[in-house]
Design brief:
By secondary structure, the chain is mostly helical. The protein has one domain. α1 packs antiparallel against α3. The longest helix has about 45 residues.
Length: about 140
């Protein structure tokens, strides 16, 4: 079997929400866990440092601003990491789903290949093995 030609897709044209329902659900769950963790950590830190010490009292605004900055930094990094991770899962699922719909509509099954770094590559190998067996059993 011949390898399909791989085309380069520029970064600005890539769809990061390939399977929005799945990806947004994972991102919402990640955001919720991060938010709860950050709030509980911040409250604990505030309670520990909220004393009558004059140096802490004078610097409370800076302390809270630093906490808010850390919260935003963690939130942005979690969202980016979630998008990258879910794209590596949702992309292969979307590719397999598209191919299965084409086969269901009567098209001849063709092997699929995932991008380098995509998860679920075992699923593509299993699908390709099934396609190979189907194509071998069908008359040309």
């Amino acid at each position: 079997m011949s390898e399909p030609t791989k085309t380069y897709i520029p970064f600005y044209k890539r769809r990061f929400l390939v399977h929005p329902k799945l990806q947004l659900a994972v991102l919402a769950y990640t955001f919720f866990v991060a938010l709860v963790t950050i709030v509980l950590t911040s409250l604990g830190s505030l309670l520990l440092h909220w004393t009558d010490d004059p140096t802490l009292t004078a610097n409370r605004g800076w302390f809270l601003a630093g906490g808010a900055f850390c919260f935003l930094l963690i939130l942005v990094s979690l969202i980016l990491a979630g998008l990258i991770l879910t794209n590596r899962v949702a992309g292969p699922i979307h590719r397999l789903e598209t191919e299965l719909k084409a086969v269901a509509s009567g098209a001849r099954p063709t092997p699929i290949h995932f991008r380098k770094g995509d998860l679920l590559s075992d699923l593509a190998e299993d699908y390709n093995h099934a396609v190979e067996r189907l194509n071998d059993s069908r008359p040309s």
